Amino acid sequence: MLGLGYPGGPVIDRLAGEGDPERAPFPLPYPTCEDLNFSFSGIKTALLYYLRDREADGRAWHVPDVAAGFQQAIVDVLVEKTLAAARRCGVRDVVVTGGVAANSKLRARFETRGREEGIAVLIPPVRYCTDNGAMIAVAGARLVREGRIASLDFEPRADWVVGG
């Protein structure tokens, strides 16, 4: 929608550092922590409406501000829902992984809020924060090397985890 290309995450992270999230606030998807659900389809729709409404009214938008507001809403909901789930389940350690874990704002916010909550937040170095699909492919390759191959109609079992 912003014409940033794919993948958009690294560009949004960079642009957000130049913007002000207060100039382009977005609603939090499922904002309360009583409910641990969250969805990003609503925030993407909010972005669509934000851009559409400004275009219809002839108002411009500043891409870094939009990126900052969009990123802020996503970071807020991911961090608060994750830490609420950890508290609720008595979890003392949280691991943040995948491509999203490369986001600088998410990393900083998790580290700060984790310290405040007394929850250890473990985040790998950015070079290891890659797409989940790539991580699944590596896990699958390890299973194949170990000779752990199943037909497409197999029933999942707990002992089919890598290293399990």
Structural overview:
The protein has 164 residues and is mainly α. It has a domain of 79 residues: ATPase, nucleotide binding domain (Nucleotidyltransferase, domain 5, 2-Layer Sandwich). It is 48% helix and 4% strand. It is built from 5 helices and 2 strands. It has a two-stranded parallel ribbon. Helix 1 packs across helix 3 and helix 3 packs parallel to helix 4. It is globular. The termini are far apart.
**Which word captures the global form?**
globular
- The chain-level mean pLDDT equals 87
Helical fraction: 40-55%
Task: Estimate the strand proportion.
Answer: under 5%
Name the CATH superfamily assignment of the domain at 9-87: ATPase, nucleotide binding domain
Q: Roughly how many Å is the radius of gyration?
A: 19 Å
Count every beta strand, where a strand is a DSSP E run of 2 or more residues: 2
**Termini separation:** 42 Å
Overview features:
mainly alpha, Nucleotidyltransferase, domain 5
Write the SSE topology:
Layout: H1 9-16, H2 41-56, H3 63-89, E1 93-95, H4 104-117, E2 120-122, H5 132-145
Parallel strand pairs: 1-2
Helix pairs in contact: 1-3, 3-4
In short:
The protein has 164 residues and is mostly helical.
